[in-house]
Design a protein that fits this description.
By secondary structure, the protein is α/β, with parallel strands linked by helices. It has helices spanning 11-26, 59-65, 84-96, 99-102; strands spanning 2-7, 32-37, 48-51, 70-72.
């Protein structure tokens, strides 16, 4: 599973991606998480795209630019210091998505 975390400049998304990777690894998930910006979405392959809450008004445009599902993260996502809340958000989204999207879930 490849997850792309997107914010405005890429700095905040780096922290979220790192924390999510650590939480996923601790939970036994073999997920690749990466940070990016809105301009990297079209060229990055991702099974799932997480976008910062400040990009919520652009969600339709972002969905059109990516192949996978897009989740708008909550306003307090940057306070998720250990990544477990973000992990729970991703796992809930995968549980609600069609089987083809959830492939690679470990």
């Amino acid at each position: 599973m490849r997850i792309l975390v997107v914010c405005g400049a890429g700095a905040s998304s780096t922290f979220v991606a790192q924390r999510l990777r650590q939480a996923a690894s601790a939970a036994g998930r073999d997920w690749d998480t990466a940070a990016g910006t809105e301009s990297t979405i079209a060229t990055a392959f991702a099974d799932l795209v997480l976008i910062g809450p400040h990009l919520a008004d652009r969600v339709d445009r972002i969905r059109a630019a990516t192949r996978g599902p897009v989740i708008v993260l909550p306003d307090d996502v940057f306070a998720d210091r250990d990544g477990t809340r973000t992990l729970a958000i991703v796992e809930a989204a995968l549980a609600d998505s069609p089987p083809s999207t959830a492939k690679g879930k470990s």
